[in-house]
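Form 7-S
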Amino acid sequence: MNKNRLEAFSDGVLAIIITIMVLEFKVPEEAHYEALTPLIPKFLGYVLSFIYVGIYWNNHHHMMHTVKQVNGKILWANLHLLFWLSLIPFTTAWVGESNFSATPMMLYGIVLLMNGVAYFILQSFILQQQGENSILKKAIGKDFKGKSSPILYTIAILFANYYPIVSGGIYIFVALMWLVPDSRIEHIFNENKQ
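Output:
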């Protein structure tokens, strides 16, 4: 099966996820700057979640460049990833509404962890289909970021009950770690074109 439908569907779902997150902002009834103050936690949560969704969209896009055909396993693994990504708006809203309280911060971390696990599963099925000499396999290399992220999420989840602010710092750190554009796939892909 051609990969174009999978990419188009995934792009549409990710666009809807971002739209749902921004719709969580309710317009203040008052017309002065102080009325925006209660929205600051929601806005901060939105920014972080927007970055995470953007990271997944970007990496998904690059990974799909290495794929020529998709099979049933890849389709289901992609849906699995989209399922976990679709929970980001809920946890983002709860974190913002609760002012970064312990339980919402823990659930936010669990959803981020499961997104990472789902992405890893999708990547594994693509590698399985492509074989050991695939472009994706060469590009991933030792995958330091991919291996360290679940460990950091787990630490953040454990800290959330006692120090939610530390959990938030870890979530921000992981996002920053992934925010730096990962040009490995692009580099390897362009190398193989020549």
